[in-house]
Amino acid sequence: MSDNASAAVPMPEIGAGDSNVPRETLRDFKKRMKQNSPETNMELENCLVDDYEVSTSCDGMVRKPTGVIYNNDMLRHKCVWDSRYPENPDRYSAIIQRIREQGLFDECKLIDVLRKFDKQLPATVIAQLEKLKNICEKFHPLETEKVASKYDAIYFNEHTYDSTLTALYSTLSLVKNIAEGVIQNGLAIVRPPGHHAQKDNFNGYCFINNVGCAAHYLLETQKLKKIMIIDFDVHHGQGTQQMFYKDNRVLYFSIHRYENGLFWPNLRESSFDYIGEGPGVGYNINVPLNATGLGDADYMAVLTHILLPIAYEFQADMILFSAGYDACIGCPEGEMCVSPGFYGHMIKLLSGVAEGKLAVILEGGYFLPSLAEGVSMTLRALLDDRPAVLPPLGQAHKEVRQMINNIKCVLHEFWGCFKVYNRYDLEDSGMKDIIHHVVIKYFGKEFTPPFETRNCYPVMSAAVYEKCSNFIEDLKQYYGEFKRNKVCYGYDDDMGLHMDESNAIETPARLQAVYERFKELELDKRCVKIDIPELSGEEWAKKTHITSYVTQLTVEGYVPTAQSNDMYWNPKGSKISILKAVNTVLSVTDAVLSGNFASGVAIVRPPGHHAEPSKSLGFCYLNNVAVAARYALDTFNLEKILIVDFDIHHGNGTQKIFYDTERVLYLSIHKYEQGTYFPSTQDGSSTKTGRGLGTGYNVNVPFNSSRAQEKMGDTEYLNAFCRIVLPIAYQYAPELVIVSAGFDAGVNDLLGNYRVHPETFGHMIQLLRSLAGGRLIVSMEGGYNTTTLKHSMNFCVKALLGDPLPRLKIEMPKLHAYKAFEEVIDIQKEFWSILNVDKHLPDRLSGLALKEEDVEVLISRYGRKPSNEVNVSESVASEVSSMLKNISLMHD
């Protein structure tokens, strides 16, 4: 059928729903609002002041420089009696060389090492420094080696004291600059490491606990209230744990290899049930890993299920990272398979917490290629560089899933994110087979002096070393060159021509409010405005919608024969506005996919996500986001696009357009109310998972309670991201993320009647920025309280620019939200194995399991800490081979 012939086809009825379920019309809505009492309006005004207090008070929260501190004095500490000792100066040199290769130092603010912290150190640390100084002043190779044998994995030379002091002062100098607002975040490249050092003992290459002293300094001198320490070194930081075990001001979180106590430091206290004491109960969180060869999928499961929810709930004033890279590919001490790029993702995902005040302090890491690349990727994340693209992540190892459920059980009563989980009676015969059993196992044995001082570490075979080195080189090529984050935006006044004299709530004032706030914050000077040429918006609309429908909308002089309460048409301006909105989103998409920008913002109206293939609905005529996705698929040959829709209304149009394809994953979080909430169809149900090739590529997260106390807000939306959005997104591994950014779930939007604050929308965007190599497009949809809208949309822009975001008040999710998540996960885990984590939690622990035969089996399988040379597990080499294949496929 020709275009001319199709123009004669009758216009579909505008605003028609797909169901006979009654819904409130716009006319009814206006009538109800006029009936409000003056007292109600006054309450609303009082509410507005409180709800926007954060939004209006953080205009000056703009990203500051990233700091780096290092000093060559730390090169002088080395083992004179064993030249192959893993903790050696080459670690430092390899990191510095890699950062220089990438020119990253030029992008950072170099921090001077201050040496005036003596009065701010704990008395126990001063005593340890004095002891270390005495040992180093009396240095003699043979005699000092005997002294070293009193300590586990320790050596000294005449420069050890000075290097240790420099490492400590470097750490304190970095956090001082962050706390005082000189820099946003930073990296301290230090050695010797510190997290094993105890108040009266040198241990595990460590003399003074750098991170522990930094936390003490921030609390006592800088007067910060709450510090979070995230320790991702493969060994448990028992020294840090002991420092703050009874202190609720410091939340210590450690993910480490454990193997039921058979892995160094072989301590019972490294297990998951050691959660703090006295005031510190619940503030010590161990994630002990009981298998080797674990990689990105396993660490991501811990991140989304445990670390992110707790970090957002704790809301620290600063986060300190004990950054060990011995879980990275190739490290013989860790025998794990975390990729260097993953560390950048971890930093990026946590950058929304603590107002972006992150301090990364080097700990371990003993395979130089992966150590250097891991630190480089960490620094790139701190600089807000575009993140590495990770291969699709699958289901976590069964031991990791077991441990996640263990932790949820022991921390159940302390954190709102876990309190919401139901607990079941272990004696319930009907539940016995499906209840998770929390069993504590410990087969370790602490070692006592004298300790080995030579050949007391694992080494790699030549074959495994070559394989891992080649893999890291391949990854470096895959990650590409350093690219700074750049953000573009599209806006045009012509989109204000679509207006209605009947004073509809979807008005040009929405657009104007957002853009005025955008300029007020001077975001227009920090983003690049792109021209909006005629990118054949009509042509691409016809490839997305039914041709005849688009033709009817765009024909000259068109006047609809039927109108509804949520649709209107202005013959003088509606066509111009509608096509301009489509062209704006297309232009932003083109700019991002052409490689000129990392991300983009489309400040557009009218919205689009309700527009179906042949039907206008819900203020929407053409589906802006769907047209952009179609353009990206066909013009740039993309295979995987993720559309995240957090407008409070289900995007029925977007869902229908892509319901049959696997090339677009549509994920919507929306108010549903058993199908009675607009658009009042069953399409928004969690059971709608796609069709044909698209089966599994449609994910609906519907909320079903309208009770006043069940209004969904910040906590529920953030939990939806942690439990559903991020895991599925990381398994899908999209090449582009497009956000249907509707803000009618925001506070005081009486069309939505939810309680999401403007800053929370910024946090949601921040959590998506690590996907698709940072290629992210935010396109404006709904939002009908202009105050909420203007703040919310611009928080999204600030997130894209890498600005620090204000703290959120996160509590226990509402029961109906929990039920919605459980329902969605139960349905979607058939398609997304990464969701297969949660189990039914028991009401108590199962007990301590200590069977001698089990001990012998585990010892023979894993071995003890070696006293001579051993090769890295061949299973790790096999895992690396598998990862190489994945990278090769992505290259192809």
TrEMBL record:
Reactions listed under catalytic activity: N(6)-acetyl-L-lysyl-[histone] + H2O = L-lysyl-[histone] + acetate
Organism of provenance: Nicrophorus vespilloides (Boreal carrion beetle)
Tree of life domain: Eukaryota
Protein name (record): Histone deacetylase 6 isoform X1
All residue ranges annotated as the Histone deacetylase domain in the record: 86-382, 506-800
Entry-linked SUPFAM superfamilies: Arginase/deacetylase
UniProt-listed PANTHER family: HISTONE DEACETYLASE 6, ISOFORM G, HISTONE DEACETYLASE HDAC1-RELATED
InterPro entries named in the record: HDACs, His_deacetylse_dom, His_deacetylse_dom_sf, Ureohydrolase_dom_sf
UniProt region (Disordered), positions on chain: 1-23
